[in-house]
User: Fold these one by one.
Assistant:
Number 1:
Amino acid sequence: MRPLALCLSLALVAGAAGAHDSADDHPGPAAADALPFALGGPFRLTDQHGRSRSEADPEGDLQLLFFGYANCPSICSAAMPMMAQTADLLAARGIGVTPVMITVDPARDTPAGMAEPLAELHPDFIGLTGSEDALRRAYDAFQVEHELVFEDPFDGPIYAHGSFVYLLDAAGAVLTLMPPVLTPERAAAIVAGYAERGA
């Protein structure tokens, strides 16, 4: 196992354990101490409205980034609703957070194909796609691996892909990683901790 993959696996275990402690409302660490390794980088992709978007949030908000696909029946069905609910919880506290998905299934996740399922999750959910090269740059920058597992007769292509939710600052820098098993309340507490520190 690659060193980064091992770090991410350990982070998932630690994060999942913390998710069960609903009384633990401690904010995250200072952004400068968040990650012991380089992760993230620039990208330029197209959203479901046909607009070009980079790693930076145009509204200056924090971002919750996930690599998946709009019609995913497995891990996405946990991560993406959690992201949407977290954004709503934070909005009620006056903290702007944009949920963003970068597709691993560009053949189906065209801008038009992503629009309806993402709108059902949250009106501000952003779906991103692009050319093979543009997507590969994003996958490589965030150390995301994915592969086609099989063709389901009902759901179509089923992909294995990364499951972490990345918390990005407004400029697109990675602040921390969160496992999809976190409750929205726990995820909101973590994000709020960074927001309160001016991330």
Note: The chain has five helices and nine strands.
Number 2:
Amino acid sequence: MTQSRQERTRWYMGFKQKTNKLKPEHLIEVISKSVQSGNLVQYLPLLRIEKNPKGEYYFFVAIESINIGNIPSEVDSFIKDLKEKCFNFPVDKRRNQFTIDQIKPMVGVAHDVQDYTNPIPYRSQPKTIRESPLILVPNSETQSLSDEQIRQFSTKHEHLLYWLSALGSGTWESFKKTCEILGLAEPKRILRRLKLLNHLSTSGNGSKWQVNPPSLIHTGTNSETGDRTFLLYGQRSHKFLQKLKTLGSLKVNQQPRGEALQRIELILPSQIRDEILIQRMQTYGYSINFTHPPSILSLNDWQNSLTRIEGLTFDFDLKRFDGTNFIDCTFQEETGFYQFWTRDSSPQLRYSFFYDQKTGSWLQGDWYGLRFLAILSIGQNVEVHYNPEAKKLEVPITQRFPELYESYLVMALGLLPTYDSHLLIYERISLQLATELTIKLNITF
């Protein structure tokens, strides 16, 4: 008995493609012709392409079947036949299934496979200098926000992680575009905050990102009841949180100024052991890990882990950080933090690297980290203050720690720092952590 179209559910499978392999308009033609020749229009009525596709782009194929996730055998064969050409890189290898509401913010108009001549709005982009997510412009200015504005910002960041969790991984361009669609400004800072909170990881040069697996880190135990509290970070979805809530209670707090998604703690009853939670979540189709705070690297080990840049040309104007600003300079092989500016009528900042005279190496890393190395190299005193009664660590904004070391502070509580005049304030920092961290950074408080 043939199922009527009215009884079917429409859902989407997502894939990644590169324009240098298959341009969007050619992808539409290839898929549409194959669907028509295989008489599969009843199962595969249309596809949708990411808005303004560039180097790497996403596309989603609509599937009509009994329910979401059910792939008709004809569609399965179709995908396998075109795997090498079109379907080699699924958006999510484990749960590659989306609703229209999930993909709507990212995709453009639908392309009917029965009309593959329908042109896609695509135009080649003029050559521009590739933007690096590692290059930041320090900003200590803050504006007052109402509670409603903070709530709205927080909700947008929550939706951002939901979307990134569905994708699993991607490029800096896809991250930036998703932020733009959600109305989130300053994507470089958003990316950095998500890394500080351990939700995301990136490649050494920041060009690719990946969502970390959902994990729990123990933050305390109730001495009376034995209930344990865990900080949740990593991949998540609304459905995932609902399932987690069946095993314990969730405590939610806003991040300062709504600059990231909400902090979530899981309060686990004493009778629920780690292995029980893991097994229960697996029955729901989700994996989850229990982790421990990482050991703190020495500054020397961290510096040695940075990417070394080879074959750097000097067809640029250089500026060197003097402890306050970047000043025009001629390279004299001095240790320091350098900016590379293009030599044209409209100079653009192309690179920011740290030069280590001892090894003769150019190092690439997070912007604040390279600035911190420069501050130490010129002998500037880092003015950190710790209040043992309040358990607060105060760091001057102009001397912000490298990203890795700031993440140790942020993950102690799962909250971003607050701002007070020219200071960054980290809450609930133990004396042990403050002492170990400053020793590793070769500074004192």
Note: The chain has twelve helices and 22 strands.
Number 3:
Amino acid sequence: MGKIRMMFAAAILAVCTGTAYGQVLDVAPVGDAVMPDGRRVYAMPQTTVVVDITVARESVVTGPYARFAQKYFGVIAPLADKETYTLRSAAVSRYDPVVTRDLNPGPVPAPHTEIYADTGSAEEFPRVLPDRRSASGSSLENAARDAAQTIFDLRSRRTELITGDYAETVYGAGLATAVERIDRMENEYLELFFGKRSVTTYTVRYYVVPDAEGRTFVVCRFRDDRGLLPADDLSGEPVVLECRPQGVAVTAYPPQRKRTPRSDEAEYAVADMTDCRVMFDRTELGNAVLPVYQYGVRTILPVR
């Protein structure tokens, strides 16, 4: 019993390692163990691959004068609100490789997917637009014409400031401040025609448990108009985790004939070094080389 507890502690602390061709291989004991609270568990080395996928979300809120943009500026503005998603990158890492299977299990845990970062949001236009300066009403077309004229006036005033026509009254830091304020006002008026655009990012974490026979796993799915989707939502294209074992473990620990370990021996699992890549279509989003127990071997070694 003491040896079994020592084996289990070694598994939790991941203190057992092996070496092959200069590479350090993860080695962990396999077998029954008794927890301090009396529960019997089965120590089973198993690697969970963590995939963090980052997506950029571009939001466009249509400006109230969008349909007049071509008339006054010669450029067609978006006429409807829109969100577009782009896959930015993926980070691949490893979760705790040693799991304990309770021989009296409790409830099944929730699915292993979580959003752990989300930055920014698109702004809407205020109910009272920034170009409204009086209580008297005005048609939308007239308001758009006045806003366009204000933009041209602001540009003329900025040119006058920069070229020195106001050098006697506005100079130094005051000139820089004045130009900055004109830029800000011009942008507010331009947004009335071309809308507000914002680009934000969010990251979703997925947990993938490879099986010994599989090499390709669907992490999630993606659409450029909806972003990341569950793996079973067939409306999106798959984001795939590809695992390519290097075969280092079987080289370091060749297969042995089946036998019962002696009193000073124990069965160990040896993780194989594996190339893990996250792919979307033919684009690689991220990669890492990780030790994966499912692709490794089991061998009998002296108790460590």
Note: DSSP finds five helices and 14 strands in the chain.
Number 4:
Amino acid sequence: MSVLKSVRSEKRLLEILGRLPKETAANLLEYAEFLDSRHGCDPVATEPLTIPRPEKESVVEAIRRLSDTYPMLDTEHLLHETGDLMSQHIMQARPATEVIDDLEALFGKHYKGLGASG
């Protein structure tokens, strides 16, 4: 399924869910969870994993670590901002440690936003 179709399906499902009575919406959620369990989807962590920051780490390694630390985040939503920070490091010679600090703040901000919207 393309990303666009996925977004449309997600929006449509949320519209339907919003119009349903509470009990029916709860039944729909139970059914979705049942389907999810039948298809063997691994549950995604809801809390960040504890992956310590190494003493020496490249920006690319930090992005990988942060993606692993926050598996509940859709990295496509972070792509633009992450790319901007990577460009600052490569094109403007911004120190890796500063960029990694900003990446950690960025992922943390998106995680907190996820909790606020959920």
Note: The mean pLDDT is 85.
